[in-house]
Specification:
This protein has 659 residues and is mainly α. Among the domains are: 146 residues, no CATH class; 116 residues; 88 residues, Leucine-rich Repeat Variant, CATH 1.25.10. Helix content is 63%, strand content 1%. The protein is built from 38 helices and 2 strands. A two-stranded antiparallel ribbon has the order 1-2. Strand 1 and strand 2 form a beta hairpin. Helix 18 runs antiparallel to helix 19. The two termini are 42 Å apart. The N terminus is likely disordered.
């Protein structure tokens, strides 16, 4: 071991902090420098801390009712108490509320160096919650020059504290030290020690995925080979992303070798976009990958090139993933094989096995979606006469051929389609039901079951018809689109929102807002709201296009919080700068965490640092309730160099609003 670090909160460092290293406060003044004395004896407390304690105790003796003792003074007392102790005492860090009190109301205090390190420790401890200030104290201790982030990532009694430091390192892309007494190898040894917590290793692997270099791969591979299920995915991700910085070929080979069960969409996109440079042999090596998303990509690319061997394609027809089976089936069809509808349907849709619960097999929704897609592609490949014949054979339960024909020859069929959509297909359903009565009059149960499905069938047909109309994008249909949106009869579709973005007006913004509360056809509203942010991004772009000239009014509307956060993100930096401080503060005081965070990040990216500092000062002053995540992020924007904050903010936005 080349060196030994003591814990920053409990060491015997000198208690001087130069005036130059004090962080700017929110009013632009520098925090008063800690008193220094070269002859002062080393004590567990700073000179300033000891003086405060004497005055605090004196005040408590004078004020037995504690009427004049401020909450911020109690917070500092607790901070100082945490600095004194031995290994036999409980390890403690300052709590969330006290840490925020000292940040907001401690402007009159001069903190000693050890108090600053205590505040730093608290910031790292609660870093993952984004509810404790960190960066003012980090700047006050000259943290970048002192390499405090790497130091805190390897020492301290708390795993959370070390993980917090690593997460902060990842945010600002902090490089690892290269001094003879403290270098990259030392950090890796500490992070991946045998007794290190899995949470610390995962955080370290995340950092290395962003900032690692080729020489780190040996240690990361050892962690992967160690068989820890909690770190395996993160280790594989780090190895792939480090290799990707050298070449895509190396990264893809690592993907195939490591066989991770989970791979982020962003990594897959980086690996397989611009696929023309990838050879067929390399793609073929991924056909058997255990990750379904990898198989989907490589099989689709090979099929599009006509490079899937027939024997392999036959094997893929029994793949567990419906999308892979679909691409394999398409490949066989492209090669001249023919399948009846029943055969194709059976190949694509698999029923889940009964698991002993006395239930029927679960529906294969992905297989059903692939079957639907195959049917539509078959219809689109037909010539006009064949398609017209198929349309005549359509039933009220399935109008795909009619819709494809109408879209292909919209001038001929557009008016009829508009009338049916406007009527919500009630007349067509009534006519179809009448025909069924004539043909199957003796089958009363069939007729009644069909009649009971009227609302479901008409909704589906209206949705399909309106999609065609919106895709054709003729301005004359604005009234019809508005009517359907106001009726609340149709499910959500991105086609409606895109149409309104192009042709709508201010009055259509409420329609766009209402649309995101409706389910998407074929998917439950709960699943959509939890897993799919795409409709919020689409709606936000449409709302911004319709209301950018009246942005303050738009931002003041009653909007679902997720949609509002996306709207803040898509707003141009120039437009955001044009908002008043009062408007920005309203967003920062939103009850919804995502809205506050989006607004704080937008402040950092779009506004001059001086204005961010003023917003922060105003935010923490007075008696209004302040949300801690706003303080956490605005403190970051004020205290850290702008080049670092801009890249960090972009990283957070990409992860939370664009992924």
């Amino acid at each position: 071991m080349k060196w030994v670090f003591q814990q920053p909160v409990r060491n015997q460092e000198a208690d001087e902090v130069s005036a130059q290293s004090q962080a700017p406060t929110t009013d632009g003044e520098k925090q008063q420098a800690a008193e220094s004395s070269s002859s002062a004896p080393e004590t567990p407390l700073s000179i300033e801390g000891a003086r405060f304690l004497r005055e605090f105790i004196s005040k408590t003796e004078r004020d037995t009712e504690q009427e004049t003792i401020a909450a911020v003074e109690v917070a500092r007392f607790r901070l100082l108490a945490n600095l004194i102790g031995s290994q036999r005492n409980d390890e403690r860090s300052l709590g969330v509320h006290d840490a925020n009190l000292l940040f907001a109301e401690g402007g009159d205090f001069t903190f000693g160096h050890r108090e600053l390190t205590g505040l730093l420790a608290s910031g790292f401890e609660y870093y993952s919650y984004e509810n404790v200030p960190l960066w003012r104290w980090f700047a006050a201790t000259n943290g970048f020059a002192q390499q405090l982030l790497p130091i805190y990532s390897i020492i301290g009694p708390s795993t959370d504290r070390r993980v917090g430091a690593l997460s902060a390192m990842r945010l600002v892309s902090e490089p690892l030290p290269s001094e003879p007494s403290f270098d990259r190898k030392d950090c890796l040894n500490y992070w991946f020690a045998k007794d290190a917590a899995s949470a610390l290793k995962v955080a370290a692997l995340g950092y290395l995925g962003d900032c690692g270099i080729t020489s780190d791969l040996t240690v990361i591979r050892q962690e992967f080979d160690g068989g820890d299920n909690q770190t395996a995915t993160a280790a594989a991700d780090a190895i792939i992303r480090i290799n990707l910085r050298d070449s895509r070929e190396k990264a893809i080979l690592a993907l195939y070798e490591l066989q991770p069960t989970s791979v982020s969409p962003a990594v897959l996109a980086a690996l397989f976009d611009n696929e023309a440079t990838l050879g067929a042999e390399m793609l073929l090596d991924g056909v058997g990958h255990q990750n379904a998303n990898v198989r989907r990509i490589v099989v689709k690319l090979l099929r599009s090139r006509g490079a899937l061997p027939n024997e392999l394609t036959e094997q893929l027809m029994s793949d567990s993933d419906a999308a892979v089976r679909y691409e394999a089936l398409k490949s066989l069809i492209d090669a001249g094989r023919t399948f009846s509808d029943e055969e194709a349907k059976k190949l694509l849709i698999k029923q889940a096995a009964n698991r002993g619960l006395g239930l029927y097999g679960m529906s294969d929704t992905e297989g059903e979606a692939c079957w639907k897609q195959l049917q539509q592609q078959r219809l689109r490949s037909l010539k006009d006469k064949e398609l017209e014949e198929a349309a005549r054979e359509d039933s009220i339960f399935d109008g795909d051929a009619k819709f494809i024909l109408a879209e292909r020859h919209f001038k001929r069929y557009g008016e009829s389609l508009r009338k049916s959509v406007n009527d919500q297909y009630k007349i067509e359903f009534s006519q179809a039901l009448h025909t069924m009565v004539e043909r199957f009059g003796g089958q009363a149960n069939l007729i009644e079951r069909t009649r009971s499905l009227e609302d479901f069938i008409c909704k589906g047909l209206t949705r399909q018809g309106l999609d065609v109309i919106c895709r054709k994008a003729e301005p004359r249909d604005l009234g019809l689109v508005r009517k359907m949106q106001k009726s609340n009869f149709v499910d959500y579709s991105a086609a409606d929102i895109e149409y309104l973005r192009r042709f709508g007006e201010w009055e259509d913004i409420p329609l766009v807002i209402d649309s995101v509360t409706r389910p998407e056809s074929g998917r439950s509203s709960l699943l959509l709201s939890v897993l799919d942010d795409s409709k919020y991004r689409t709606a936000a772009r449409a709302i911004y296009a319709l209301g950018r000239t009246r942005l303050p009014e738009v931002l003041a509307m009653q909007v679902p919080s997720r949609l509002l956060s996306h709207l803040i993100i898509v707003t141009s930096d120039k437009a955001f700068r044009g908002l008043s401080d009062n408007m920005v503060t309203l967003l920062l005081r939103s009850e919804k965490d995502a809205v506050r965070k989006a607004a704080a990040l937008k402040c950092i990216r779009a506004l001059p640092k001086e204005r961010v500092a003023k917003l922060l000062a105003d935010y923490i002053s007075g008696d209004q309730y302040r949300y801690y995540n706003v303080v956490h992020w605005l403190d970051f924007g004020v205290s850290i160099p702008r080049d670092r904050t801009l890249s960090a903010v972009e990283k957070v936005i990409e992860k939370e609003w664009r992924s």
